[in-house]
Design goal:
This is Tubulin-tyrosine ligase. This protein has a domain of about 50 residues. The protein contains 14 helices and 20 strands. By secondary structure, it is of the alpha+beta class. Strands 13, 14, 15, 16, 17 and 20 form a 6-stranded antiparallel beta sheet that branches. A 4-stranded parallel beta sheet has the order 6-5-7-8. The N and C termini lie far apart (about 55 Å).
């Protein structure tokens, strides 16, 4: 909106509509000139004030009153009450443990004893899946295993001739884990408000509760820094850290997001922020057969961590994913663990046990809330991102479908939890497929 459009005041009963218009006389963005097109929606007289609706087309079903808080003082007590009701509901939620069942998953074998045919669109799988039990095929309809980065739905199955006997690296309804708003909802339905999940709100449906939480923190004089994440994007695209309530509300206009309490005091490594990427292999949901790869890696921010408000706009201070932008400073995991233990006087094994317990809980949440995830022909690999707070307690960041495993394939490393067992990067997909399809446990640990 230009100066003219911004000068119009709000009214719930406006007499004008206004729309931004971008004109590119040379057909290029560099030549663009922006205008506000203004037109009356009713008869007006000389001297009448021109007004517009700041939330045109947005009614109460889209949280209109709460969204007006971005511009106007709205009743804080109402939002605080909504938050209190929500908090009580979460606190009253108790997890019902899953029944203990014996493993029932069999190895996948062809009746004639020949190699399992694998169709994939992932270059690392083509390059590094080299064991003789598997062979790459370019025809998906002839494959025993479909390992793809693309969502496989019924329409796609029909289009390329897939059948229900083929194994696919996706579980039904796995969106309850890999989409951020569904992940939070799944965990909250199962556990309420576990310590390992930061307070999280779906801005499309829970803005009133978020406002109440914000005002409660403001009255208590505690930290009010939040991070906004798109529902379904990776690599920190369109992610914002802010303590400005108006900015939080207005950022809803750029697409559906969650708003999550920022971990303002994370554990640091030599003064820098970091997070951890774990690889989880899911063989079965019922009974639950879940494994964690002995290979995990650390992702380090480039700049010294700071809570100075000016630093919130510095990607290399507050974010750790540098292999797509910024300067990537790879550090081998055993080296990181050794130096972290020395710096903080802690035992990594204690931290690792807590992380494993948390990851198991995440997938138990999905199994409890969404039993329809069960599928005998599904085997999947997920990336689970974890951060540690200043007390070395694990915090869940997100779960990623078909994670980028370039680092796992590129670097040889040692299993820090298994007395230095050497793991070759080139063997990564060999043992992943061995675990998921041949019931092997090399270089993985059951959860």
């Amino acid at each position: 909106m230009d100066e003219l459009g911004s000068a119009l005041r709000h009214s719930d009963e406006p007499n004008f509509r206004v729309s931004p218009f971008l004109y590119m006389p040379e057909g290029k963005l560099g030549s663009a000139i922006s205008y506000s097109i203004l037109w009356p929606t009713e008869s007006i007289q000389g001297g009448d004030e021109c007004t517009r609706d700041f939330l045109f087309g947005i009614g109460e079903e889209k949280q209109r009153s709460a969204r007006l808080t971005a511009w106007f003082h709205t009743p804080q007590n109402y939002f605080i009450q909504e938050y209190e009701k929500y908090r009580v509901k979460l606190q009253s939620t108790k997890f019902s443990p899953l029944p203990v069942e014996r493993s029932a998953t069999n190895s996948v074998r062809r009746s004639d004893g020949s190699a399992l045919r694998v169709y994939t669109d992932i270059p690392q799988v083509e390059e590094f899946l080299t064991r003789p039990e598997f062979v790459i095929t370019t025809e998906p309809k002839n494959a025993d295993i479909i390992w793809t980065s693309t969502q496989v739905d019924e329409e796609m199955k029909k289009a390329i001739g897939l059948n229900d006997q083929q194994y696919i690296n996706q579980f039904p309804f796995e969106a309850c884990l890999v989409m951020k708003h569904h992940l939070a909802e799944t965990v909250q339905k199962a556990y309420g408000a576990p310590e390992w999940l930061q307070p999280t709100y779906n801005l499309e449906t829970q803005l009133s509760q978020l406002l109440g939480d914000y005002y409660t923190r403001e009255k208590a004089g505690v930290d009010n820094l939040w991070i906004l994440k798109p529902w379904n994007m990776a690599r920190t695209i369109d992610t914002t850290v802010t303590q400005n309530l108006s900015a939080i509300i207005r950022l809803m206009e750029t697409g559906p997001k969650i708003c999550q309490k920022y971990i303002e005091h994370p554990a640091l490594f030599k003064g820098r922020k970091f997070d951890l990427r774990y690889i989880v292999l899911l063989r079965s949901m019922k009974p639950m057969e879940i494994f964690i790869s002995d290979v995990f890696w650390v992702r380090l921010a480039n700049n010294t961590y700071s809570l100075d408000m000016r630093s919130l706009f510095e990607y290399e201070t507050h974010f750790t994913v540098m292999n797509y932008r910024g300067r990537l400073n790879h550090m081998n995991t055993p080296e990181f663990v050794k130096e972290f233990e020395q710096e903080h006087r802690v035992k990594w094994l204690d931290i690792h046990v807590r992380v494993e317990k948390m990851i198991r809980s995440v997938f138990e949440s999905a199994a409890t809330v969404h039993p329809e995830m069960c599928s005998p022909t599904s085997r999947a690999m997920y990336g689970v991102d974890v951060m540690l707070d200043c007390h070395y307690q694990s915090k869940l960041l997100e779960v990623t479908y078909c994670p980028d495993c370039t680092r796992a394939c590129k670097y040889d490393t040692e299993a820090v939890t298994k007395e230095g067992e050497v793991i070759k990067g080139s063997d990564f997909y060999n043992y992943v497929f061995g675990c998921l399809f041949l019931n092997e446990t090399a270089h993985v640990s059951p959860l």
